[in-house]
């Protein structure tokens, strides 16, 4: 079992409809490939965690890197892991927008700010901490 985490910058402004369409379009193929994960988005950046067998996760990441909807892709981690953290999600989307101003402010205080929103971390343990904070928030 492998877990891959990457961060990228969107080439257009992201909103919830955009995130929802991405998740909807990837759920079926991810399920068929045995891939689970979560996609986080601010208005300007993506942060994604993918879990599954090495070949399937690697192949999906190659397609993601070629996607013209984003650039400045940073591979944060690609590690062998004992178990899935997101086993129930073929793909789950979380938008960090202005819906909950207090939550966004708290996350900015903890993780920093980037282009007016939460800075996505570039350490795998901080990424997982951020996701945990969002689940609790």
Q: Helix and strand layout, with pairings?
A:
Layout: E1 2-10, H1 16-33, E2 36-41, E3 45-52, H2 54-66, E4 70-80, E5 92-95, H3 101-111, E6 113-114, E7 117-118, H4 124-136
Parallel strand pairs: 2-5
Antiparallel strand pairs: 1-3, 1-4, 2-3, 6-7
Give structural notes.
- The chain has 137 residues and is α+β, with helices and mostly antiparallel strands.
- It has a single domain (2-97), classed as Alpha-Beta Plaits, CATH 3.30.70.
- The chain is built from four helices and seven strands; from the N terminus they run βαββαββαββα.
- The protein has helices spanning 16-33, 54-66, 101-111, 124-136, and strands at residues 2-10, 36-41, 45-52, 70-80, 92-95, 113-114, 117-118.
- The strands form two sheets. A five-stranded mixed beta sheet has the order 4-1-3-2-5, sandwiched between helices. Strands 6-7 form a two-stranded antiparallel sheet.
- A hairpin with a 2-residue loop joins strand 6 and strand 7 (117-118).
- The protein is globular.
- It starts with a strand and ends with a helix.
The stretches of 5 or more residues where confidence is low (pLDDT under 50) are: none
CATH architecture label: 2-Layer Sandwich
- Biggest sheet strand line-up: 4-1-3-2-5
Order of helices and strands: EHEEHEEHEEH
What characteristics describe this protein?
single chain, 137 residues, alpha+beta, Alpha-Beta Plaits, five-stranded mixed sheet, two-stranded antiparallel ribbon, globular
